[in-house]
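Continued from yesterday's entry.
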Amino acid sequence: MAENAIEIVRRSYAAYAAVDRPAYEMLMAPDFRFTSPLDYELDHDAYFARCWPDRAPRPLPHFLRLVGEGDTVFVTYEDRKPDGTPFRNTEIFTLRDGEIAAVEVYFGWDLPKTAQ
C-alpha cells in the first residue's frame, strides 16, 4: 500500500503545481481536512479558497523525503515563495481507501537557515 499511497501523493503535488484543481479533487476523500499552523481542519471548500491562489503553473518542489508507511505518507520538500525565497516544509498525508483524507503541513524555514 505504501507505494500506491506515495504515487497518489506525487499526483497531488503534480496537480497543485499544474494548478489542475479537477485532478486534485479526484484524489480527495469526501471528508478531506487540511491543517497547518495557520489553519485547523479546513474542509474541501475552505481549502481551495485559502490554499489555491490564482497563479500560474509552477515546477514541482524538490522532494527531500517521500516515505510511506501504510496509509500515511511523510513528505519533506524544498520550494520557492513567489518572491524567489527558498523554503522547506514537511507535510503528512493520511489516505483512506486510496483517497487523501487529511493533510497536515508543518512550515519550515527560509533557506539558507543560519544559527542565531
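--- second protein ---
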Amino acid sequence: MARTILIVDDHAGFRASARRVLEAAGYEVMADAVDGDSGVAAAVDVGPDVVLLDVQLPDIDGFEVARRLELAGVSSLIVLTSSRDRSDFGSLIEASGVRGFVPKAELSAESLAAVL
C-alpha cells in the first residue's frame, strides 16, 4: 500500500490540513512544495509513493507537472486535487495518465485510498 506522500499545492492552509489528515491516518508526508517546478524537483529527490498534486499552481499546471514527472521517470502515483469540480477539467484528467482525482473538500485517507 502507498504510504509516503508529497503534497504539491500553493495554499499553505491546504498543505497543512492535508498533512494533518493524512498523517493521522498513518501516511508519511515526506515533503511539500508550493509550485510545479519545486514539486517536480521534490518528487525526483524524495521518490514518494504518491504525489498529491493541485491542478492550479502559480507557475505550471498539474497536468504539466504530471507530464514532467513521467518524462523524469518518476514512478509515484499521481492524484490530482482541486477546489474546482472534476467535471471542470473534462477529459484532461483521464488523458494526463494520473491515477485519479480527489476534490479538496473531500480529501480524506479514505478518499485517497479509494483512488489508489
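Residues 12-24 form the longest helix (13 residues). Residues 6 and 51 are 5 Å apart (CA to CA). Will compare against the first tomorrow.
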